[in-house]
């Protein structure tokens, strides 16, 4: 049996590149040759050994990487809708296929789901085996890097923007301008919103401005709240998205929202502290968690990228080979990269 190189994150900031067998496809599976696979901030929970997805099942015993894109090189005998040579991205949630959530397209809400890179072998390898139903066919002119970024990074924020209700009348605040927040700027602008983007790091604010943000602010600036009020005509924001997971950002966003506004919590955080009476009840806000996207949203994601000529490769600040995995995760952990992508 042929072997392949694959990356594992056993915890304690350890990165292991192992030689393992190339997986064999079952009747409903496909085998992909990997061309791009992104590093995500949630991967660092595996890197440290306290996985935010999968709990005790995510022990670093699986190939990491949940944002992959590649080419089909083998198909199971039951696969009819995909063929060798198809260029695809991969939906990270592997559901049971028959529960109400799966049949609605929300496999990430399936009670029996497995997550690529956490509880199922992921994309930081030379090859990956996945169920054919998890493939997302991409246009011929979309690069592998853009295809990988179109899933968790852009797709998650596109879905969050739609849940927030972004349209041409929206005034949206986005807190945290890492890869997710930057993708949120692109998605919110494409859906017609005016966007104020907030991050304490000057380089991130400058990048968000280049991506089309209407106003960029340092949230630690004492004048930032007043600037948001002026931006929103004194009425407050219609929507907010937090990608930072920071309690101060949660409170600032809730304070900045107009009555009947909507807020999506995207950034991971085990706990936070807010003031429900003043921030929620009196303003009748809608506040909800949002992560990933329904697989049935992907055609709209592709259409938005195409219609607005969005170049997702702009979000990839660094690329690495698989054999550079230790360096890639160390630099990502130290925030010396933004969106880092393994390519081959």
TrEMBL record:
Sorted alphabetically, which PROSITE patterns does this protein's record hold? ADH_ZINC (PS00059)
Q: Say if the entry is tagged with keyword Transmembrane helix.
A: no
What residues does the Enoyl reductase (ER) domain cover? Answer: 11-342
Q: What class of enzyme is it?
A: oxidoreductase
For this protein, the record's Pfam families field holds: ADH_N, ADH_zinc_N
Gene Ontology MF, one = zinc ion binding
EC number assigned by the record: 1.1.1.1
The protein's required cofactor(s) are namely: Zn(2+)
Q: Which UniProt keywords apply?
A: Metal-binding, Oxidoreductase, Zinc
Give the UniProt family note.
Answer: Belongs to the zinc-containing alcohol dehydrogenase family.
Q: What is this protein called?
A: Propanol-preferring alcohol dehydrogenase
Q: Which organism is it from?
A: Devosia subaequoris
């Amino acid at each position: 049996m042929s072997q392949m190189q694959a990356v594992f994150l056993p915890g304690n900031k350890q990165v292991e590149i192992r030689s393992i067998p190339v997986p064999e496809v079952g009747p409903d599976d496909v085998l992909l040759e990997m061309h791009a696979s992104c590093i995500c901030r949630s991967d660092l929970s595996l890197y440290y050994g306290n996985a935010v997805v999968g709990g005790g099942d995510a022990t670093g015993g699986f190939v990491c990487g949940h944002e992959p894109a590649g080419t089909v090189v083998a198909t199971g005998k039951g696969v009819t809708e995909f063929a060798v040579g198809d260029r695809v991205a991969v939906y990270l949630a592997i559901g049971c296929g028959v529960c109400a959530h799966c049949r609605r397209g929300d496999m990430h809400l399936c009670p029996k789901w497995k997550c690529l890179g956490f509880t199922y072998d992921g994309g930081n390898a030379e090859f990956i085996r996945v169920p054919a139903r998890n493939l997302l066919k991409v246009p011929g002119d979309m690069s592998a890097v853009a295809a990988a970024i179109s899933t968790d990074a852009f797709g998650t924020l596109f879905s969050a923007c739609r849940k927030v209700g972004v349209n041409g009348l929206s005034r949206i605040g986005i807190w945290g301008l890492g890869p997710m927040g930057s993708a949120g700027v692109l998605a919110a602008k494409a859906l017609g919103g005016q966007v104020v983007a907030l991050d304490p790091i000057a380089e991130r604010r400058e990048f968000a401005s280049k991506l089309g943000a209407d106003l960029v602010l340092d949230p630690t600036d004492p004048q930032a709240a007043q600037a948001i009020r002026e931006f929103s005509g004194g009425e407050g924001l219609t929507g907010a998205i937090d990608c930072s997971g920071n309690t101060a950002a949660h409170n600032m966003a809730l304070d900045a929202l107009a009555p009947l506004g909507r807020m999506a919590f995207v950034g991971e955080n085990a706990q936070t502290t807010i003031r429900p009476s003043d921030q929620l009840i009196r303003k009748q806000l809608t506040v909800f968690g949002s992560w990933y996207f329904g697989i049935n949203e992907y055609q709209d994601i592709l259409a938005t990228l195409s219609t607005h000529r969005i170049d997702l490769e702009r979000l990839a600040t660094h690329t690495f080979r698989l054999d550079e995995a230790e360096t890639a995760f160390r630099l990502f952990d130290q925030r010396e990269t933004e969106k880092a992508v393994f390519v081959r």
